[in-house]
Every structure is written in structure tokens, then in C-alpha cells.
């Protein structure tokens, strides 16, 4: 309500800054607590937002705690750095003891040059006899910089230095970075002060840790004794400092989470108050909010209770106001429906009061998934996994798990239904890990095919088996027209004898392909019917007659007739008449080609009925293209221009030409009810017939072509079901069959390995990969083929102010939101 006011000039900007400062301190505390490996208290404590007096006390306590922690931490780092330097110095003295020999101390003399071959060049006596001023620089350098350091010394000092190295036995921690790395101890001997200055600058450039080098053995011994004492003292002081720091952090960790929740609640409150406006007296806050109608009484009670607890002189009150804005969409969900609603919302949030597909998705989504994933064994494993998640849904480890596991957990009820429906379709397909289960006994009788089981007059007219046929034939064919061979259909699902048949794949492909077409057309027709309820609710009855009815006629007269042909052929033809049954595909193509010679069809009068259906389709297409634009044009020229208001908001969208033409349609759609003058605004806008005609033409072309492509798209149900069954068969043949056929000597041990590999491949390939593939295809069928028929999804989700949306815990790399 105060968009014209700058963010820095709003009333509660100071309080928001205070909350941000408190958040900064809390983040620093959590970082220090985490660094010290102190566990944060678990639990979902949600303390209320504190009053202003308590906020000031909290701010003072946190600021004092921060200052103290920073000071103690700084002292600890200094002590630790000093300790590491002393340890390095100790190692340097120990290693460099053997670099240069100093046996006798004496004053400088100026004698003649001694013979060089009789004494070592590095002997201190020799250097003094040369009359030179010898200097030493010693320290430590990282392992990776040794070569470059030596080259630089040689080039700059022109060979007037002698460098000696020795690698330390153990890596040491770098006092600057804290990284544990390998070090080299070096000792540089040089002549002259100028060269010494160059050497020291080079050491600084390569970040060497330089330490004083003792002149005498006695001095070296004294330094080592002093270092040992100081190191022991530093260890003692450092341990006491760490103990004190840990005590302070443990005490702070007890309340840091609750304080973080309180600060975030305060910040959220002040941020919301900054969006309100003040009245003319600058003493009353005014806010406009969306509230569900069912929660109005609860909102009134909350305002009264807040006024009473705060001791306000004037109570807070609420009024409902009319508005032209379309309200946001609130869809109440629970644990079970939340996952299915998320699938729909990923496509688009429903417009206000639009039909919500999530209710039907609860059934259709797992069912279409199961059609592609039909296997009793795989579905049962998925069901058990989802059931385990559902039974332990309140376990904190699951609610705070990693991203991939959290995805499975959030969709646990979807997985549960997908597994349950897959068990059902697996029983229909009679498929359990690619094997059939004979529960009720096969309806086919093999013995009835033998000639010995029939009378002599039947043996002459029927093609029967004898012993020679059985011995010499590679393939034996069961003839259902032979009496006693086919005793009736299997009570539930596919007969298990088809698992042994060589034409099993041909039979199942025909069955699943036709089933996919039937399911797809039913699914799409249901979506068109749901669009009628949208038109009824939004009081656009003309869309029913000019859009929905032509769409239904187009769908049913072509593709609904195809479903009729499939079911009629199943019912009308038996095994004895199957040879004369016409092809559905040929008849369906001939329906559009009008062949000159009419062959015998599925039923009498088929050609006449098909011509009538085509005529209805031909009449429905122009109505679909031109009916709605012409009606809106007539409505625009024949009616005045006035607004339509209802239920506290208007249905008019200023960017919709259709709604503009309906501004005067109150007599038709509203029944002539008069609306108060204070709640109506006259709105006249330009009516663009060309835009409406183009929009409707695009929609009609998309629908007509989409009916063909979408019907073909449902064939993915058949394709993925076939792929899943074949993968299961291949996995069984390559693993389990080998293990079961092994010899008895090592067969048991081999079977254990085979079962283990079979379980791993089943889970990762057939359950995870194939399940994910079927899941994505089921989503596509709902988004594109089903929801596209009626669902707009152009709404705005209602996100109420709620403390439960605030994060109550910090992570290690938490940033203040």
C-alpha cells in the first residue's frame, strides 16, 4: 500500500536493520559453534516473537557475547600462531646444528691465506683468516618453492652465497594458513651487508619463515632451553583458553536456535508492517490482505485477542471490501494429496475457482504409470519401500535427509499408489519378475488336441495331434475351435499358458496396443467433459454449445467410434469366426476414403453409420472455428457495455477480448440481477474481432490435430509396457536362469551370487531407471494430453503469512535471507 515510499523511508526500517544485525551475530555464533564441533540442540522449538524490551536485552547480550568471543578467539589465534612459530624455530635449530662447524671462538685476525686444500671452505676459522665478514640467514620454506628460491638466490647474488637444505621429517602446520604441508630448513651463508639485504628481501618474496641463527653453541643451547619452556607454557595457556572458549560456546549453543527463530519472526513481522500504510493521524496501520472465506471468523478472533493482549486503546477491526482483482488460488492439501497437487502445480497453478485436476490425478496418474510398469513383483517391492516411508514419516532423519532421499520421501504416497496399482496391472498381465503365475488353472486343455480323445467322425474334420506330430514338430498349435481345448477365459488377467507360447509377444502387443488407445480416448474425453464444468462455473454457457460440444462430437465421432469398433470386434467374433473378421485398421481408413467396392464390414449398415459420423464431424469443425467469434461479435454489437461483479470480485480481465464482449451480458448470464452502483464500474474497451477469430482458429487447429497426435501419444503405454516386460525377461534369462541351471556342486554358492546380482540390477535398472521413465511419461500424458483439454493453469498461488515457512535452523554455510 506504500509503493511510492522508498524502502529506507518506511516506518519500521530501523527495526528491520536491528533484526539483520542480530541475525549477523547469530550466524557468527553458529559458525564458531560448528567450528568447535559443539552439537546444536535438536528439536522443533518455536518460541513466540519477543516484545521490544526483551529484544533490547537480547541485543545487548548478543553484542557483549560477540565482543567477548572475538577477543578470546583473537587471543587464541595469536597464541596458536606463536606456538607454531616456536615449534618451527625448534626444528630449525635441530636441523641446522650440523650445517656449519664452530669449534673455537676467537677474535678476528688478519693472517695470511691458509692452504685451501687443507681446511674446509665452510670452516669459520677459514673465513676469519680471509678477513671477510660472514653472515647467516636461516629459516623454513615450503617444499614447492625450493627450486625457484635457489635459482633466484644464484641469479641475484651472483654466486656469493652458499645455500644448504634439509627436509623436515614430518609436515608442520603453517602459522598463517593453518595448512599442514612439507617444509625445508635452509641455511644461507653470505659475505657482505649488501648481499645480506638482498638475501633477506628474497626470503620475504618467497614467504620464508626466517628465524635468528645463534653464533655459538652455548647460545644455541640456551635458546633451545628457552624455547622448550615457552612451548610448555603456551600449551598450558592455550588449553585453558580453549576450555574457556568451549564453555562460552556451549552456553551460547543452548539458546542460539530459539533466538534465531525469534529474530526471524520479528524480521518477518516488521517486513510485513512496512508494507502497510498509515491513516491521516499517522497512528493507525491499514493493510489489505487476501483471506479465505472459511477463515474470516478465525481472523476476527485473532485481531481481538491481539488487541486485548497488547493493551491497545482502540481494538483492531476488519472489513471486507469489493475488488476487481482476481483472487489467488488456495487449494488445501494434506500429507496424502500434497504430492499429487505438486505435480499439477508444476504445470501451472489453477486459476481462481477452476477445476482442479489433482483430485482425478490421484487415480489416473498411478494407474497410467502402472499400465507402463505392470509387474506384480516390481510393484510389490515399490509398494513395500513406499509403505516403509509412510510408516516412518515422522522420523527426523527422513524429514532432514539428503536431496535425493527427500524427493522419495516427499512423494511417498505417490510411490505407494504407483506400487499398489502396479501390483494390480501385474496381475492383469500375469507378470511377476517376467514369469507367469498359475493361480486358477489354465483355461486351455492340451490333452484335448490328441486324436485319441475324439470320436472317429471328429478326427476327420479337425486338425488334431498324434504321437508322430508331437515328436517331429518344432511348434505345436492349440486350436480353440477344437472341442475341449479352450474351456473358458482365465478368471483374472492373462492366461499363464501364454508365457509358454511362441506368439506370446504378438498376442500381448495386440492386446496392449488396443488397450492403450481405449484408455487414451477415455482420458481425453474426460478432460473435455471437465471443461464443461469450468464453463458452467464461470457462467459462459455459450462456450459449452460452441466449443465443448463440437469438441466432444469431433472426438467421439472419430476416435470414440474407433473404440466402439475394437470392443465390438472383441465381442462379436469368436475363435471359429476369427478367420473372416475384418481388419479394424482397414475399416477405419476406408471410413475416410469411401471405397467404390464396399466389402463386408463389422456389422450391417456400417457404411451408412460411418457417413453419418463423418457428416457430424464435418459440421462440428466449422462451428468450432467460427461459432464463438461470431457469437461474441453479435453480442458486442447488440449489447451495451457494462461490468459484471459477483462474490466481491469481477470476472473481467482487461486483456481478454472475450471478457470485454461479455461486459454487457448480465441479462443472459446473471439473470438480470441488478448490482449496486457502488460496486460496478463502467468499462468500455475496444473489441478486436480479428484477434478473437485468430485465437479461436489456433485453438481449433491445435485441438483437431492434437486429437490425432495425442491418441498416438497414448501408445507410449503399450511401448513402455513392452520394454519393461522384455527387460525383465532378459534379466531373468541372463542371470537367474544360469544360476538355477548350475550343477549341484557349486550351484548353491553360485546361486547366492546370482540372486545378489539379480536383486541389484532389478532395483537399479527395472525399479529406478524404468520407474523414472514411466513416471516422466505419465506426467507428460497428464500435462499435455489430459490437462490441455480443460486446464488453463494461469492463476497465482495463495501463500499466506506463516511462521512455519521460516527456517528454524542454521546450516554451516547459512546466509541470512
From TrEMBL:
TM helices/strands, residue ranges: 367-391, 412-429, 515-533, 545-568, 612-635, 747-769
UniProt keywords, alphabetically: Coiled coil, Hydrogen ion transport, Ion transport, Membrane, Transmembrane, Transmembrane helix, Transport
Pfam families: V_ATPase_I
Keyword Acyltransferase: no
GO molecular function, one term: ATPase binding
Record-level GO cellular component terms: acrosomal vesicle; focal adhesion; perinuclear region of cytoplasm; plasma membrane; vacuolar proton-transporting V-type ATPase, V0 domain
InterPro entries, per database record: V-ATPase_116kDa_su (IPR002490), V-type_ATPase_116kDa_su_euka (IPR026028)
Bilayer topology annotation: Multi-pass membrane protein
Keyword Iron: no
Coiled coil: 55-89
GO terms classed as biological process: cellular response to increased oxygen levels; intracellular iron ion homeostasis; vacuolar acidification
Subcellular location: Membrane
Role, per record: Essential component of the vacuolar proton pump (V-ATPase), a multimeric enzyme that catalyzes the translocation of protons across the membranes. Required for assembly and activity of the V-ATPase.
Family, similarity comment: Belongs to the V-ATPase 116 kDa subunit family.
Protein name, per record: V-type proton ATPase subunit a
Gene responsible for this protein: ATP6V0A2
